[in-house]
Amino acid sequence: MITLIAAVAENNALGKNNQLLWHLPDDFKRFKNVTTGHYIIMGRKTFESFPKPLPNRTHVIITRQKDYAPENCIVVDSLPKAIAVCPEDEEVFIIGGGEIYKQSIEMADKLDITKVHHTFEADTFFPEIHVAKWELVSSEFHPKNEKHLFDFTFETYLRK
Predict the structure, then answer these.
(1) What pLDDT sits at residue 108?
(2) Overall pTM surpassing 0.90 (yes/no)
(3) What is the distance between the alpha carbons of residues 137 and 119, in angstroms, rounded to a whole number?
């Protein structure tokens, strides 16, 4: 199963200058719980936005850079190759960025979205989620509070 996991603003914004646009601790906790123990596929810029590799996950990085070889990571030059190195019988998570989401949304089985209820200026966006292709199967609203500046909703979509 291929799952795209992302935090997405109302205007589909993901980030700007290779940085997230918000800080939502509960979203980080959920991301960690959902992806721990799994293969995570990402573009090079997404990988480089982390202070260090994420613990207890197998990192698969897509890049066209020939000599790119971060320690303890699998590096490939295309999305099909990234998927091919992952175990066939496990859920695999695609974690960004915008270009990788765009390439992979048509092959995904599931979307695990944190919808941030705000619009942001951004340079990276998540592709449109077409309701003709996706069914919203769960939705859990979280109001803003002292740790979260914005309302957000955890949404799970399955391919129709």
Answers:
(1) 97
(2) yes
(3) 24
The CA distance from 160 to 146, in Å, is: 37
Give the whole-angstrom CA distance, residue 152 versus residue 116: 4
pLDDT along the chain (160 residues), means of 10: 98 95 96 97 95 96 95 96 96 97 97 98 96 96 97 98
- Residue the block writes with tokens 């303890």: 72
The span from the CA of 46 to the CA of 99, in Å, is 10
pLDDT for the residue 158: 98
> Which of 42, 134, 53 lies closest to 86 in space, CA to CA?
42
Provide the 3-class DSSP secondary structure of residue 70.
Answer: coil
Which two structure tokens, joined as six digits, stand for 8?
Answer: 């997405």
pLDDT at position 132, please?
A: 94
Tell me how far the alpha carbon of residue 62 is from its chain's centroid.
14
What's at 59, amino acid-wise? Answer: H
Residue 42 pairs with which residues in a beta bridge? Answer: 61
Instruction: Report which secondary-structure segment, H or E, holds 137.
Output: strand 134-142
* Alpha-carbon torsion (132, 79, 52, 120), positive or negative: negative
Q: 97 preceded by cis ω (within 30°)?
A: yes
